[in-house]
């Protein structure tokens, strides 16, 4: 296995373990639950096999579902996120994405913030819509989506800043 593949495998396992052992037990005010495991999908290398990526996204969501006993909502949200990610890569990074040369540690902060925010909000909206599954509770869905998304975005940005390689 190459160094990149080993790095991605380690990221996959560590994010699942941190999510199920630490972050699944955080529940502020009934609305705020961070889901940092989606960093795997957000930071997955752009130029890899798309079929493999969608499968790994499903596997990631499935693992979180198994540990959380959540009936497939994480898997559905992750697969949707993996499927629509290229649209948001192009929207956030423009020409850099067209040439398949994105290095997230070398992108400007505003592009990264837009990209993270859009994907995290969509993931949370899909996940909470499937969890609550009642259109009459749309306010609750939007409330949980908004508050959890803000908290998750902050945590994901802090984690990527702390664990990114320094620019030269």
Question: Could you explain how this protein is built, in words?
Answer:
This protein has 168 residues and is mostly helical. The chain has one domain (3-163). It has helices spanning 3-21, 39-43, 50-68, 73-93, 95-98, 109-132, 138-163. α6 packs antiparallel against α7. The chain crosses the membrane at residues 6-23, 35-60, 72-93, 113-133, 145-163.
Q: Classify the beta-strand content into a percent band.
A: under 5%
Mean residue pLDDT: 87
Largest sheet composition: none
From the alpha-carbon coordinates, what is the Rg to the nearest angstrom?
A: 16 Å
- Overall morphology: globular
Using brief descriptors, characterize the structure shown.
single chain, 168 residues, mainly alpha, 7 helices, 70% helix, 0% strand, Rod shape-determining protein MreD, transmembrane helix, transmembrane, membrane
Strands, helices and their partners?
Blueprint: H1 3-21, H2 39-43, H3 50-68, H4 73-93, H5 95-98, H6 109-132, H7 138-163
Helix pairs in contact: 1-3, 3-4, 4-6, 6-7
Give a quick rundown of the structure.
By secondary structure, this protein is mostly helical. The protein contains 7 helices and no strands.
